[in-house]
Amino acid sequence: MKNNDWKDRLNVVYSTDSSYNYEKEDDKEQTTQEPSKQNLRIQLDRKNRGGKVVTLITGFIGADNDLKELGKLLKSKCGVGGTAKDHEIIVQGDFKQKILELLKKEGYTKTKAIG
User: Fold this and answer.
1) Rounded to an integer, what is the distance from CA 114 to the centroid of its chain?
2) Contact predicate 23/93, CB 8 Å
3) What are phi and psi of 26, to 5 degrees?
4) DSSP class of residue 11?
5) List of domains in the chain
6) N or C: lower Cβ tally within 10 Å for the chain?
7) Alpha-carbon distance 75 to 84, whole Å?
8) Which residues in the chain come in under a pLDDT of 50?
9) Would you state the pLDDT for residue 106?
10) What is the pLDDT, as a whole number, of residue 48?
11) What is the model's pLDDT at position 9?
């Protein structure tokens, strides 16, 4: 029973099947598509935000580091705060048009503003 360390199986339900072989998911980093192939959507959102407006950028496909880097660029160009996680970027305030222009300038040609 090599490679059968119990620490690798935390949060796994016990199985009585003798032929069961635990396989853990590979945490491979997703490769980032080039900007011209990204299909980003920009929209304003105020759900669960206490009435405050945020600009929401969704549809990013790629590594978390690249998402955070793009979020950092957008937040600094708009001069506001925000966050980048779970394949979306949240920028505080109504910057839909400015972010659309910034993304097009960065090479994200398939970007659309929704709403």
Assistant:
1) 18
2) no
3) -80, 130
4) T
5) 32-113 (3.30.780.10)
6) N
7) 10
8) 1
9) 92
10) 85
11) 64
CA gap 78, 67 in Å, rounded: 17
Give all strands of the β-sheet with 54-58 in edge-to-edge order: 82-85, 88-92, 54-58, 41-45, 112-113
pLDDT for residue 6: 65
Predicted confidence at residue 20, as pLDDT, reads 73
Report how far apart, in Å, the C-alpha atoms of 71 and of each of 62, 79, 108 are.
13, 12, 14
pLDDT at 51: 85
Backbone angles phi, psi at 112, to 5 degrees: -130, 145
Residue-level pLDDT at 70? 95
Q: Give DSSP secondary structure letters for 32-101.
A: PPPGGG---EEEEE-TTTTT--EEEEE---S-HHHHHHHHHHHHHHHT--EEEETTEEEEESS-HHHHHH
CA distance 115 to 105: 21
End-to-end Cα spacing for the chain: 57
Three-state SS at 9: helix
Nearest C-alpha neighbor of 87 from the set 3, 30, 10, 17: 30
